[in-house]
What we know:
Elements: H1 10-16, H2 18-29, H3 41-45, H4 52-57, H5 66-87, E1 92-97, E2 103-109, E3 112-119, H6 130-150, H7 152-155
Antiparallel strand pairs: 1-2, 2-3
Helix pairs in contact: 1-2, 2-5, 5-6
Amino acid sequence: MPDAAASASPAAVIAASPFLAQLVGMVRAQDSFGAWDGKSDAAVLAPYVVDRAARREIPIIGDPDPELLWRVELFYNAAGIAVERRTGLIASPTIKINHEGFGRAMLTAGRLVVYSKYHRDIHRFGFDTLQALGEAGDRIVDEAAAMIDRFPEVANF
């Protein structure tokens, strides 16, 4: 049974996700020369969409590509800004990835770790669809906001 959201246009998927709207803004803010001015929001987010077959072809030997690390950083920065917009508290990302592609990404608010994820093969960072990207980002924002609601005295410290 096909999912109605899966058949939605890319513009509708982006509009429905506060995280995707934030990520588009973060990526566009990095475009100091206007190279992406004529591109659609879906085209700007296209590097984040890597289907399973394409991920299998990406070698995990060697240092992660600097552009990939930049995309990961923007992903978590957008999540942090989306959390801040939702809760009013600054959610700072901390990302530490070693040269083999292993590492951790965390969001903290005050003294509280509101989100933490360990990455094993950052070389293959990506999502099957634009909708999956949005759902993953929105889930991070939801989890972080729930953690802040649960421990507000630590998050406000």
